[in-house]
Amino acid sequence: MIGTVTSKGQLVIPAEMRRSAKISAGTRVRFESIRGGIAIYPQYAEDIERARGLLAGLGLPADVEREAEREIG
Q: Which residue, 1, 31, 29, is CA-closest to 15?
């Protein structure tokens, strides 16, 4: 499948791929450099919560621990 990059650097992801990856308007995505290209992964709120649980109790500064209370989206 082929997407299109606009003059502003925005990427149009084909509808079929968006549906299969459960990407909708407002979904945050993570970009990773891979050999010869770029991988794009949807970033779901539950992924962020899981990471927060892994870091719990590591003595992070209070403002970083409070960051999780901010609304994601």
A: 1
